[in-house]
Amino acid sequence: MEPEFEKEDRFARQTRFAALGQGGQDALGRSSVLLVGCGALGGVLAQWLVRAGIGRIVIVDRDIVEETNLPRQVLFTAEHARAGAPKALAAREVLAQVEGPTSIEAHAAHLDADLLLRLGASVDLILDGTDNMATRYLINDFSVARDIPWIYGGVVSSGGLILPVLAGRGPCLRCIFRDPPPPGMLPTCDTAGVIGPAVGVIASMQAGLALRILSGNSAGLEPALLELDAWSGTVRRLTVPRADDCPTCGLRTFEFLDSSGSRTDAVSLCGRNTVQVMPQREREPGSDPSLDAVEVQLRDAGLVVRRLGPLLRFEADGHRFTHFQDGRTLVEGTEDTGRALSLVARWIGA
């Protein structure tokens, strides 16, 4: 008769890490995280957090999977790219295969102030996996206003920056970067490129800090701006004081959080030659606009339309369009926001 061996607990080797222990693991299992963006940085973050056994992860991403994502976005496959799958939904599908204890919630949506207020109210930490500063300033406002920590992460070329923002301890994003940079001032993955290992380095450091915070071990954490480079192998820690005159954590004005009614109607996406166009009319809270009418309208105009779950895809005027159920439209083949707005008005309407 074969001897019976007791199955080792899934997290046994993790809990043997003395700084975490079983108490820290239990805390992870009770924790809830909002992950904004699940492309390059976000995909690595999601993997580590789900595999570590956090209780709940809420994923928000407005984008779809493309072939050019595959060199550095570890969650996705060529099949996802061929289907033009929404990243948030594809991420949930892949992460569910871990079969861990984590509850995975996914939203294929643009994170504006209203959605952040709704989704962020019940989480313990917000993680930055996005690729644009506008969203980061919005998250920073919310974090400071609601006393919910967040971890900024940005990567371009071979390196990047990390900043844990802990309310009342150390600087917030606006202490360091007072105002959003004008378009074209900062290098992007489109202008400077990016390598996959740089993404992995930055996201893994973010994930490590996240586990420390969520497990209840942040008491000795001194927030600082970290600069890492995967090509040169260099690491710099920059201690930046909190600014008393910071508009957000010093003066406690939350202009990005309070300006949801004046959002940008169109924005060019980093490195994509694509513009995202937002619906010009506000949706009623909780409403699910049907795609049927738009699909009929496009077919009546003689266009070939593909229905892929919560989105429609079609081509017109030399551009590819992806129209989402929440009213957003991605226009590929241009960085001209004015032209994108005009094209969406022509084919879909306001």
From TrEMBL:
One of its GO terms (molecular function) is sulfotransferase activity. It holds the Pfam family ThiF. Its EC number is 2.7.7.80. InterPro entries: ThiF/MoeB/HesA (IPR045886), ThiF_NAD_FAD-bd (IPR000594), Ubiquitin-activating_enz (IPR035985). The keyword Disulfide bond does not apply. GO terms for cellular component: cytosol. Keywords: Nucleotidyltransferase, Transferase. Residues 12-247 form the THIF-type NAD/FAD binding fold domain. Gene3D superfamilies: NAD(P)-binding Rossmann-like Domain. Belongs to the HesA/MoeB/ThiF family. This is Molybdopterin-synthase adenylyltransferase. The lineage of its organism: Bacteria, Pseudomonadati, Planctomycetota, Planctomycetia, Planctomycetia incertae sedis.
